[in-house]
Amino acid sequence: MAVDLFRIDDRLIHGQVVVGWGQPLDLAFFVLVDDAVAASDWEQELYRMGVPPEMELHVRSVEQAAADLAGFQARPDHGMLLTADIGTMRRLADLAPIPRVHVGGIHHRVGRNPKLRYVFLTEDEEIALRALAAKGIEVTAQDVPSAASLSLDTLLASTGDG
Amino acid sequence: MTSSSNVSAGIVIAGHGGFAAGLRDAVECVAGPQPRVATISNHGLDADGIAAALADAVDRVRADVIFTDLPAGSCTIAARRLAKSRGRITVVTGANLPMLLDCVLKERVGAAGATLSAAKGRDGVLVIAAEPTSGVEDGSHGG
Known about the structure:
The structure holds 2 protein chains of 2 kinds. Chain A is an alpha/beta fold. Helix content of chain A is 36%, strand content 25%. Chain B has a single domain (10-122), classed as 3-Layer(aba) Sandwich (Rossmann fold). Chain B has helices at 19-31, 47-61, 74-86, 97-105, 110-123, and strands spanning 10-15, 37-41, 63-68, 90-92.
């Protein structure tokens, strides 16, 4: 499939994504799924400037992304789909087939418990990840390609020292 | 060498991991203490956390220029957002030591100063290829 990677990362487009994943995996395009960014030309321009010219950035609302996903999947090259939070990925998964999701960065906030160096989750967010897995989606955690891909069970059993 | 004490505007260096603190440390090795240079790392912070840390650093040193590492980095995204909301901040990506030294030693301020420092940073990037060896070499070279 053209979109090999479905990532939840609260920083959306940033160095780890564009350089860390994009360059070694030779990603040709990113699909940024976010209703607020899709509604703002300035926000789109902000993220577009962060993507090198040889890579494409497509910004979609959740509903637009669901409608366009089959087209992205038919491309011969490879890409990554990004959401900033679990809720957005869940909404997309309710509308379109998502085979797998990796948690790439959900950082500390009040109410979140430490899981990994780059993942902090509220209890509701843990439930939401389990709900994604219950739909048959393979849920893992991995910040960069060279790091180990951790299963959902391993992620949820972690307590922040990983 | 001049002191920056008579310059009202400071600068912020922002980047991944220990980039900013390391760069400031390197600047201070050459140019002495830099009380008007603030640093932040994106380590462990989400986008809102980076934005808050950056705004705090800018206010602390009354910065009018933010130097970042990657054009695509989360610090650059946050810096551009802050520049848009404040309207008087210049963002320079790809910061390096020659660039920062030019900025603090020449007491650069504002967009015009940042442009000069950025040019100095670009000039500091050289590719020095090994010269072809000739004759008998034993493979040992001095420092």
